[in-house]
Design brief:
- The chain is globular.
- It is 69% helix and 2% strand.
- The protein is mainly α.
- It contains 15 helices and two strands.
- The chain has a single domain, classed as Ammonium transporter fold.
- The mean pLDDT is 94.
Length: 426
């Protein structure tokens, strides 16, 4: 029975709006990082998720996540089409807010998670294949992990903690990104991005702002834990941004704005699973560690020549993994009585559970993603043609341009095209 609390309900509506804003923020973030010929192609992959994921969520996604239980892995279809949900239905985790608000809030998480993956295979995947991938990945990777971790599945029953999506969002998206890169392979045509670092900065600002709703809202009510999660979110992002900036400055001899922005996102991703379970001092440690570790993860990716175009694995995959493990070390019931005590507070078993869960999620996300790309490729071509890459996906796939090119830009494009063609000839 619903015991409506207008304060909690108003706060959760605000948080839902903030998380919704993160997906356009991600589109700007990714759009600035690519070259001028592929801006719209990467941005539409975020925006189309806002539409299509909502359709899937209404049809069956919410039900698979939060209705019933099949062997602890997935729910059932009893709430498909939101059947039986009405004005007096309470939210499952908090009976002071309406179920409709909880449905909307969780839907925003479902929208942004697969959009994160798109940054890894930018400039390489056909739009039709992306739409099939979006549908299949939500169904076979995202929805099961929402249920397993948040919807009463076996990981939740076992005692695994993930406050706002270290496993459910960032780790599985990052490993799916890595699987996509392995399957699709490298870009044939070198991309001349980032074409607009100010656009990346705008995207980072929107993501950072929205992340307060992402993390603080995951408490599902307004209390002291909400305030702690809110503060921890900003602290970790800030320390990670500075840590990345300093490490990059040391290695690259100049303080890079792009590094500062990327570091902030790494800190946000890493603190996500721990935000409501740890102290602000621990958030400082998480921020510093994530800024350094994620920087070197990206450097390792570059040395191994993985074409993860926008560093989804290094920032989100590694960040989510690191956050879950650090939660296992630093979790403290003094800051959330409903949480757990980590290794440093007397419970090494909790750390073992966290490590086991995030290794399991990593393997599941990688294997399922790789397999579904192979299956999709059997029905429709996944990778765009070399000619399409040369023209740019904005023009070749969507028949649109982000920018009208000046005459000098046209000449430059013709010269670059001719040079690439000559280089490709034996």
């Amino acid at each position: 029975m619903l015991h409506l609390d207008t304060g909690n309900t108003g706060f959760m509506i605000l948080c839902t709006s903030l998380v919704m804003l993160m997906t356009p923020g991600l589109a700007f973030f990714y759009g600035g990082l690519v070259g001028r010929k592929n801006v719209l192609a990467i941005m539409i992959q975020s925006f189309v998720s806002m539409g299509w994921t909502t359709v899937i969520w209404y049809l069956y996604g919410y039900s698979l996540c939060f209705s019933g239980d099949w062997h602890g892995v997935i729910g059932n279809l009893h709430l498909a089409f939101l059947h039986g949900v009405n004005l007096s239905t309470p939210a499952a985790p908090n009976d002071t807010i309406p179920a409709f608000v909880f449905i909307a809030y969780q839907m925003m998480f479902a929208i942004i998670t697969p959009a994160l993956i798109s940054g890894a295979f930018t400039n390489r995947v056909t739009f039709k294949a992306y739409m099939l991938f979006l549908t299949a990945w939500l169904t076979f990777v995202y929805f099961p992990f929402v249920h397993m971790v948040w919807g009463g599945g076996f990981l939740q029953q076992w005692g695994v903690k993930d406050f706002a999506g270290g496993i459910v969002v960032h780790n599985i998206a990052g490993l799916a990104a890595l699987a996509s890169v392995v399957y699709v392979g490298k870009r044939r045509i070198a991309d001349r991005g980032p074409h607009s670092i100010p656009l990346v900065a705008l995207g980072t600002g929107l993501l950072w702002f929205g992340w307060y709703g992402f993390n603080a809202g995951s408490e599902m009510r307004v209390d002291s834990v909400t305030a702690t999660a809110f503060l921890n979110t900003d602290v970790a992002a800030s320390f990670a941004a500075v840590a990345w900036l300093l490490v990059a400055w040391l290695n690259e001899k100049k303080p890079k704005f792009l590094g500062l922005l990327t570091g902030a996102v790494a800190g946000l991703a890493t603190v996500t699973p721990a935000a409501g379970f740890v102290s602000p001092t621990t958030a400082v440690i998480i921020g510093v560690v994530s800024g350094v570790v994620c920087y070197y993860a990206v450097e390792m990716k570059n040395r191994l020549q993985w074409d993860d175009a926008l560093d989804v694995w290094g920032v989100h995959g590694v960040g989510g993994f690191l956050g879950i493990v650090m939660l296992g070390i630093f979790a403290n019931k003094a800051f959330n009585p409903e949480g757990a005590n980590g290794l440093l507070y007397g419970d090494p078993v909790f750390l073992l559970k966290q490590v086991t869960a995030v290794v399991f999620s990593s393997v599941w996300a990688f294997v399922f993603t790789y397999a579904m790309l192979r299956i999709i490729d059997a029905f429709t071509t996944v990778k765009v043609s070399e000619q399409s890459e040369e023209i740019g996906l904005d023009e070749s796939l969507h028949g649109e341009r982000a920018y009208e090119m000046a005459d000098r830009d046209v000449v430059r494009e013709l010269v670059n095209s001719a040079t690439s063609e000559l280089k490709s000839k034996p």
